[in-house]
Amino acid sequence: MKRLLVTGGAGFIGANFCHYWSATYPADRVVVLDALTYAGNLASIGELVQQQRLRFVHGDICERDRVAGLMREESIDTVVNFAAESHVDRSIEDPQSFLRTNVMGTHALLEAARSAWGPAADRGMRRFHHVSTDEVYGSLSPADPAFTESTPYAPNSPYSASKAAADHIVRAYAHTYGVPCTISNCSNNYGPYQFPEKLLPLCIVNLLEGRPLPIYGDGLQIRDWLHVGDHCRAIDLILRASPVGETWNVGGGSTEPNIRIVEAVCDLVDAAFRRRPDLRQRFPGSAPAQNRSSRSLMQHVRDRPGHDRRYAVDGSKIARLGFVAQTSPAAGFAATVHWYLENERWWRDIVSGAYRDWYARQYAAS
Ligand SMILES: NC(=O)c1ccc[n+]([C@@H]2O[C@H](COP(=O)([O-])OP(=O)(O)OC[C@H]3O[C@@H](n4cnc5c(N)ncnc54)[C@H](O)[C@@H]3O)[C@@H](O)[C@H]2O)c1
Fold this sequence. Notes:
Layout: E1 3-7, H1 12-24, E2 29-34, H2 46-50, E3 55-58, H3 64-73, E4 78-81, H4 88-93, H5 95-117, E5 127-133, H6 158-177, E6 181-186, E7 188-190, H7 199-209, E8 213-216, E9 222-227, H8 228-241, E10 247-250, E11 255-257, H9 258-275, H10 278-282, E12 298-301, H11 316-320, H12 329-342, H13 344-351, H14 354-363
Parallel strand pairs: 1-2, 1-4, 2-3, 4-5, 5-6, 6-10, 7-9, 8-12
Antiparallel strand pairs: 9-11
The structure holds nicotinamide-adenine-dinucleotide.
């Protein structure tokens, strides 16, 4: 039986991980530590909290002594660090908060683990897993091979630079102090509970509200798309099977330009409207409710400064551990559109709150 501390467990991937873990290992103890920033949403794990299948602690990973106390109190043997500022656009507006949480916060968490776990007596029982991104490797040109675990770091945005710095600190704590760390660098995740500033949920929510679908520049930026359920399985595998000190790239095995993703989402929403007459009543402002194609809402806007052109992940190392992404983009995108249609309350609460102001600032001038 494991005793996990999941930081950032009220965010997108963290919440999915909590659902995955409590369904897969119901006897394990899961404690979530989350500062509930704009991206954290207790509703994403509310059911698990109500059913007492996990404990939620409202707190900041930067509070080293408090985190160490929580780890001792709960006899935590496994930390999975999802807590982060995660949106590149926001890192361009406000790099400071990214350095604070992603760099200093990860450092404070490592110190908390070092203090709570003491000298590495039973390292085999303990694990500090740090969740990072493929963006630390920078941008690929069309002919470059996909990122491997030995691709040199070349981060281009304040977000990816802060994640790269955190990865180096994690590595240094494993090497210098023997903290039993592993790192995973994953590609673009999508799925349920994703905050609607990221591409897929932004498109779905904007479509249903009849708002423009912003396409940065030519929309030909290529990303590797990973269903969040596959990502959770990959982390589980790393926790169970990876030696300490290893780094793992995790991708979905399918690369697509952003504009194709937006087109696919438009077509999935249009198809759902054709099948289900109730959607016209529920979303009267949407294009299909007004007999227009959702693609008519696509709008090219000024590109993000320094926008990376192409990411691609070589997943052959983690494949040797037994990981294969199981969700195809076609099935995963369809399931994600379906989830947002069935969970309107979840995103409507967000859209009518803090996100509205950010959205207005971001796109009003474009
Ligand atoms: N979403 C992706 O596609 C993707 C891809 C690669 C890597 N990642 C990494 O995966 C992790 C999770 O990403 P996500 O998309 O779920 O992010 P998210 O923005 O949806 O969630 C982040 C969570 O961390 C919490 N948090 C922020 N600052 C905190 C602090 N100081 N203390 C405690 N909690 C804090 C927030 O409240 C939120 O619940 C991040 O480390 C991110 O860099 C994400």
